[in-house]
Design a protein that fits this description.
Length: 289
C-alpha cells in the first residue's frame, strides 16, 4: 500500500504519475457508490503534503463542498482533514440534484469552477456524479472530460461499465486514463439515505438565513422550470459579474413584484440577477414536489 493512500492500494507508478506536477487536473469518474469521494479524500491527503490543492465537487446530489444543486470548489489549506474543514470558495448553481435533463449546466459549471480553481492551486481533484449509464451518462462524462481537459482520469470500474466513455479517448495523449479497482469495503447508500443527506446539507446551509426583498423587474432572471410555483423555489443570487453568490428560497411574491427571499447572503451585497432552480425546498431542507 502506498504511503498516504490508506484506503486504496495504488501501485507506485500510479502514485508517481499522480504526483507529477505536470498532471495538474485529475478527474475521478465511476458509477454510484464506487468510492469516488473516498478516493478524492485520499488524493487530497496525499497531495496536500506537497502541493497547493483544490477540490472541485461536481456532484450536485451528494455534495460535499457547496449545498446540493451546486458545483463548488474549495482550497485545501494545510493537510486535508475532512470536508467540514474546507470552505467553499466559488460555486455554480445547476438548479437540480441530478444531471438528468440538465446536462449542459453541469458541464458548463464544472468547466467554470475548474478554471477558477486551476488558477489558484497546483493540483485540482474533481469529484463527479455517479451518472455514467445510458446515452445521457455517456455524453455527460465525455463532454465533461473534453471541455475540462484533465491530464488524468481515474476510472473506478466494477466490470466494464465505463468502457464506452473511456473508448472515446483511446489513442489520445491526454487524458491519461488510469483504471482503479473498487475496494471490497465500499458500501451502498440507499436512496433514502441520499435524500436525508441532501436534507441535512440544505438545512445547514439555510440555518442562519435572513429574509431579503428584491424587486423582480430590476433583476436579470433565468428560470429552468418555467410555469411552476415560485413558492419555495430554490434560487441562486448572482452578482454583476455573474458569480453565484449564494442560494435562496423564495418565500413569496408580494404586490408590485417584490420577491421575498430567505438567504444566508449578507443583505448589503448587490444582486444583479437570479436563477430559478427546478427544486423546491423549505428551510428545514425538505425537498418539496
Ligand atoms: N477504499 C475504501 N475503503 C473503505 N471504505 C470505502 C472505500 N471506498 C469507499 N468506502 C466507503 O463506501 C461508501 C461509499 O463510498 P463513496 O461515498 O466514496 O462513494 P461514491 O462513489 O463517492 O458515492 P456517490 O455515488 O454517492 O458519490 C462510503 O461509506 C465510504 O466510506
Ligand atoms: Mg461521492
Amino acid at each position: 500500500m502506498s504511503e498516504g493512500m490508506a484506503r486504496f492500494s495504488l501501485d507506485e507508478k500510479v502514485v508517481e504519475t499522480l504526483l507529477d506536477p505536470q498532471n495538474k487536473v485529475i478527474m475521478v469518474i465511476g458509477g454510484p457508490d464506487t468510492g469516488k469521494t473516498t478516493l478524492v479524500e485520499e488524493l487530497a491527503s496525499l497531495f496536500s503534503a506537497q502541493f497547493r490543492v483544490g477540490v472541485v465537487d461536481a456532484d450536485i446530489g451528494q455534495s460535499h463542498i457547496g449545498p446540493p444543486t451546486t458545483i463548488a470548489w474549495a482550497p485545501v489549506r494545510g493537510k486535508f482533514s475532512g470536508w467540514e474543514k474546507i470552505k467553499c470558495e466559488d460555486m455554480y448553481f445547476v438548479g437540480t440534484t441530478s444531471p438528468s435533463g440538465n446536462l449542459l449546466p453541469v458541464v458548463t459549471g464544472t468547466k467554470i469552477i475548474c478554471d477558477i480553481a486551476r488558477q489558484k492551486v497546483d493540483k485540482v481533484i474533481i469529484d463527479t456524479t455517479g451518472m455514467i449509464r445510458g446515452g445521457a451518462g455517456k455524453i455527460l462524462k465525455i463532454c465533461k472530460i473534453e471541455v475540462v481537459k484533465p491530464q488524468v482520469v481515474l476510472a473506478l470500474e466494477r466490470e466494464d461499465e465505463l468502457s464506452s466513455i473511456l473508448r472515446a479517448f483511446k489513442g489520445m495523449r491526454t487524458p491519461l486514463i488510469l483504471r482503479i479497482s473498487i475496494s471490497s469495503k465500499v458500501s451502498q447508500k440507499p436512496y433514502l439515505h441520499r435524500v436525508s443527506y441532501r436534507r441535512r446539507k440544505f438545512r445547514e446551509y439555510f440555518k442562519d438565513a435572513q429574509r431579503i426583498v428584491l424587486l423582480r423587474n430590476k433583476l436579470g432572471m433565468r428560470d429552468i422550470r418555467p410555469g411552476v410555483s415560485l413558492y419555495n423555489r430554490l434560487i441562486s443570487l448572482k452578482s454583476e459579474e455573474g458569480r453565484d453568490l449564494a442560494l435562496g428560497i423564495i418565500d413569496k411574491e408580494e404586490e408590485g413584484g417584490q420577491l421575498s427571499i430567505y438567504t444566508p447572503l449578507d443583505a448589503s451585497r448587490k444582486i444583479a440577477a437570479i436563477v430559478l432552480g427546478r427544486v423546491r425546498v423549505d428551510l428545514e431542507g425538505r425537498e418539496l414536489p
